[in-house]
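Re: folding output
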Amino acid sequence: MSRPARPAILNHSPPALFHAIVYQIVWEFEVEPHRAAEFERQYGSAGAWATFFREGEGFLGTELFQNLEAQERYITVDRWASRAAFETFKQKRARQYAEIDARCASLTRAERLVATNEEP
């Protein structure tokens, strides 16, 4: 029996020191053919989303993973100090969030929220 391939870690922004990771948001994306490089630039730790999230109190970091077997598939993991920190940021910055989402929409065929996790 073969073991499933592990996704490649493309980049990440490390969590803040001395702060437990409390809330994680996991998204899966299917990237349009020939748009992978641009997708990685926008969704990586130095991309539009991470840069935007860094403006929010409680943002701890983002990781981007590429599936090794299906290279058009990616996963992002966003980490926040709490669900409330993320929800407050998203509510206060709804217009900018929607603008970035609209700009990045052409990079993907599909996206779906895979999981959220709030640690005690």
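--- second protein (sequence, then structure) ---
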Amino acid sequence: MNYSNNELITEMKEAFSFFDQDGDGQLTIKEFETAAKSMTQCPHYIMDRVKAENKMTIDFSDFLRLIKEKTSKEDNSDKFLEACEVLDIDRKGVIAINDFVSLLKKFEENIKDEEIAELINENNKAEINYVEYKDFIKNIQNWCYDSQCDG
């Protein structure tokens, strides 16, 4: 979402009002789940956040925070690709594994070293010291989506 802050808030208010079926200024968990399904790629992840916070209803400030948090994570994949391309000096579609791991840890803060090793072992058959980052990114997005959306 490339919006100014005011445009984003206006759009989120419209969405909140749309999903607030009874107009009480609060979304029930069911209403919020419907909103999350239509507004994010991974509604299970965002619903887990709501459950962890023990919320029974969601007001607009919570709605805005949760949706912005999730959509900003989804938008990070483009920034991650751009960061890989900067490190790809020769424009061959590869970067050093160490650089790739550093970027991955920066962009996926909760990823564990064991998970990184598993991803590299599963997806990096061709090169020992380099990563073909575009294909790897697709696999990582699928892995992150699957790991956040299981349940």
